[in-house]
Amino acid sequence: MSNSTAKIGTVYLVGAGPGDADLLTVRAARLVMNARVLVHDGLVDPSILAMAPRGCRMVSVAKQRSRHTMKQQDINALLVREALAGNDVIRLKGGDPFVFGRGGEEAEDCFAAGVPVQVVPGISAAMGAAAAAMIPLTHRDSASIVSFVAGQCKGLTDQNWAGLAGVGRTLVIYMGVATAEAIAEKLMADGLAPDMPVAVIENAARPEMRVVRGALAGLGAVVADNRIKSPALIIIGEVAGRGDMMELKKVAEMAA
Ligand code: SAH
Questions:
Q1: Is the pLDDT score of 207 beyond 90?
Q2: Does the bond joining 194 to the residue before it have cis omega, within 30 degrees of 0?
Q3: CATH no. for 126-247
């Protein structure tokens, strides 16, 4: 059987940003509004899914906040199958598809099957959280290096954390809620000061956002005492301790 005459669809790996629909790129919004087949994970805000047109086939592969999770291989196979059947597929992911989004694996499997892929970048949680919590990731007086690290990964303790955090550096940890205490201990064992400021941002760029602050030695307690839940981001570094700009923002807004 030959399908040489059948049109192969394109898989669009689209970043949905950290939450609010108005943090979508214009290109992402256009693709969602014209979607015929939309495959999304659990981090994508319902307000964004609501932008899809009537008749769009929506497939949830709920990677977060759900008991039902499709295996990555099955997701890849689904994208390939839909595209080979001639459908353009909007694969909508929280944040940016190429920042801890496994977009690379999906693209590789699509290319292996001869399926074209386009990537539409999104605002990653680090940028969304920094803006919403008023924590600049770099600052001429406090940080000129930023690292993004996955806290929940194979061999957390084997990972070489030395140099990722410290004076003049900002460390942003994704997926680190469950391992926060272990990460803090590892960083202190590697020589980081126990009083290094930390901030934890839960549900950044969403109405229910919470920001809690503390010091590295108390990171585990900050997470536990506030019952921080995923999705949350941990920021470690002097930038997290540069005064509370969220307060200053409110004061300025009230005075304006
Ligand atoms: N591709 C996504 C990251 C997926 S990994 C991106 O670029 O943002 C999932 C992790 O991202 C979560 O465990 C959490 O650490 C972080 N995250 C995603 N959305 C978030 C949000 N609105 N607020 C805080 N953290 C978020």
A1: yes
A2: no
A3: 3.30.950.10
